[in-house]
Each structure stands twice: as C-alpha cells, then as structure tokens.
Amino acid sequence: MQHWHILGAGAIGGLFATLLQDAGTPCTLLLRDNDPDLVAGNACITLRRGEQLHRHRFAVSACSDRSPVAHLLVCTKACDIVPAIAAVGHRLVPGATVLLLANGLGYQDQVRGRWPQLDCFAGSTTEGAFREARRSICHAGHGSTLVGQPGRAAAPDWFTTWRELPISCEWSADIDTVLWRKLAINCAINPVTALHHCPNGALAERPDLAALVRELCTEIRAVAIAAGQEQAVRDLHPQVMTVIRATASNRSSMLQDVLAGRATEIDYLTGYLLAQAQRFGLEAPWNATLLAAVKALTAGPAPS
Ligand code: PAF
To answer: According to the model, what pLDDT value does residue 141 have?
Structure first.
C-alpha cells in the first residue's frame, strides 16, 4: 500500500492530497514544527468545486518527526524545494519515491545530486487550483498533469494509482521536453507580468509588452535549441500567445508572489535559462534585464 506524504499543502499539494485520499491512498501532510494543526493532530482541507464543498481530514506530521517516508510529493515553490526536502531528509527511506511537482528547472538536478539514493520523478500540472483561505482550495478548472523521469520510458508501478485519479494524469516518456516547454512559457509571461503588475492578458493588449514577449520568445527559443530542446520550443511564440489569451484575466504566480512580498521562482525560470545561455555561449539580453529587474523588486531595502 502506498502512503504519500505531502510537502507543501498549498493549492496543488492540497488538491493532489484530496484526490489521492478519495482514491483510497493514505496521505499525511508534513508540516513545519510551529504549524498550529500539529497540536490538533490532524488538518482539514476544504475543496470547493463550483457550489460544492468537500471536506477532507488528513493525518499530519511535523517534518522533524522520525517515522519513515517512502512516497513523498513535493509541491512547494521551486525556491523552497531543496530546503523542504532537507527538513525531512532523515525520514526518507533508501530508494524512496520523490515526485517534484513545481514550476521551473534546476532544482531537479540539485535534488538528484544531494540525495542520489532517492528515486526522483518530476511532473508538471496545469490543474486550475488556487487557495481561497489557509486550508481552503478552489478547484476551478481541469488541466493536465504529466509525470516522468528522465530516460525512463515506462511508468513505475506506483503510477497506476495516479493514472486512475479522476483528472487527466499521464506518464510522459519525455518529461524533459514537458518541463522545458513549461519553463519557456513561464519565462515569456511571468517576469513581464510581475514587473508591470498586470494580468496576463495585458501582454497581448499592450503593444510594448507584446513586442517584449516576442523578443523574449526569440531568445528563449535560441537557448532551448542550443540545449537540445528544439521540440519543447516548437511554435513557442504562438503557444505563449495562446496561454496569454486563455489566462487573460489571471495574475501569474510570479505577480502574486511579488504582490505578497514573497520570494519568486525567477532563479529557477529565467535564472535557469540564462545559466543555459552562458553554458552555450549565447547572449539573452532581454531575459537578463528581466532577471535583474525582478530580483531588484524582491531584494528588500538596501542596507543604510
Ligand atoms: O505560472 C503561472 O502563473 C502560469 O503557469 C502561467 C499560465 C504561465 C501564467 O499565469
């Protein structure tokens, strides 16, 4: 029997916890040592779909506890993944299954490098879920979830449970392409919206921002192709415009982070892209400008 532990029970982590629990798979939320739900010994997540509310009660466990973890789903922000896994590192059994479901690239290699004994998988999801309150999630729209492991064609046994979830959840024999495509789209949209404090749709409506998105796409394509990821950036600009129009009224995840004064995922999006550009001797000046500007936005006040 699989028993999944969830690190990062926000919108996506909470959604998958409820889906797995409904499918009969035990799930435990891993909480920081000071989380008030640890006192109660359990946590309730309310999931809203339209008018319908579903309440789910979960077992909870402090990261610092000692009971073993064999299946770990990590849904934190990209910048929190390595420290979050480090906080439960002592509990992970050798060969534990770890599924990283987050935006960006770069942390997958960091995790594999630091914990080579783990069986690490990566995924990307477009399920439309957002947090309405601390443990209340709205599942606003269906998307698709792809999971894979670089170089692995066939899904492992544990994935049977995931494939049967009542959402579109498939194994990808080419997860690198999936992650690169998502990275490319995020790099073209998120930093621009974060800097201009605008919804995604403004990137199609404002000619100056539309022109910037086009320049970014040209640079992103060149870097991806140099990195051997041509398939991921085929038709990148039209794809980006489709996402912008489909999510016109949304605030990107990076804009939400900036508005809330939180750290952004820029190092694992544009930062990763620029590291690749440097590796292949390419310039990507529009992306470099955005990286610096977003970092300046969230750097906090200069020391006096
Ligand atoms: O990160 C995000 O906000 C989304 O993935 C998307 C659609 C690229 C921008 O809203």
So the answer is: 86
**Do 4-173 and 177-297 have matching folds?**
no
- Statement: residue 301 has pLDDT above 70: no
pTM of the entire predicted model:
0.94
Q: Measured in angstroms, how far is the CA atom of residue 249 from the centroid of ligand 1?
A: 11
Atom 9 (ligand 1): residue with closest C-alpha?
A: 252
Nearest CA to ligand 1 atom 3: 252
Catalytic residues, which ones?
Answer: 182
Cα of 299 vs centre of ligand 1, distance in Å, is 22
Reported residue count of the chain is 304
pLDDT digits 0-9 by tens, 211-228: 999 999 999 999 999 999
Residue-range domain boundaries for the chain: 4-173, 177-297
Which CATH class name applies to 4-173? Answer: alpha beta
Structure tokens at 182: 């998502």
CATH number of 177-297: 1.10.1040.10
> Measured between alpha carbons, how far is 249 from 247 in angstroms, rounded to an integer?
6
- Three-class secondary structure of residue 295 per DSSP: helix
